[in-house]
Amino acid sequence: MDASNHDDASNHDDNKVEYTTPRWVQAWFLRKSRDNWKKKYTHLKTDSKRLQNRVNDVTKSREKWREETKQLEQRLRELEAENAALQEQLAALKKDGPLARTGSVQR
After folding, report:
1. Residue 76 and residue 84: Cα distance in Å, rounded?
2. Alpha-carbon distance 30 to 26, whole Å?
3. pLDDT value of residue 8
4. Are 93 and 101 a contacting pair, CB within 8 Å?
5. Tens of pLDDT along 40-88?
């Protein structure tokens, strides 16, 4: 069984395909093909890098806006609390009158 496999392998070498195309045409075609895929993948690599940079920029921008939003929400809560306190003071002044706090008597 091993001898027949060995014979098949040696026959394989004897049955080489002879190409009718001249070698210089084959070389030209392969060089052109190689150059085309190099161009293609160089372009793809450039696009990939550009898109990755864009993703990084957008991510950084989102984080900046998110942080700014948090700060503004905190400021809003502070101002709402201050507004509520001032509204309470105003209501107390309206209820008691402006002179009630000072202890003066109206004439």
Report:
1. 12
2. 6
3. 54
4. yes
5. 999 999 999 999 999 999 999 999 999 999 999 999 999 999 999 999 9
- Which region, left, alpha or beta, applies to residue 67 given φ > 0 means left and ψ of -120 to 50 means alpha? alpha
Collect all residues with Cβ–Cβ distance below 8 Å to 105 and sequence separation of at least 6.
99
Angle at 22 between CA 19 and CA 27, to 5 degrees: 100
Gap between the Cα atoms of 14 and 24, Å rounded: 24
Q: Specify whether the backbone of 12 is left (phi greater than 0), alpha (psi in -120 to 50) or beta.
A: alpha
Look up residue 62 and give its amino acid.
Answer: R
CB atoms within 10 A of CB 78: 10
In one letter, which amino acid is 11? N
At 96, is the secondary structure helix, strand, or coil?
A: helix
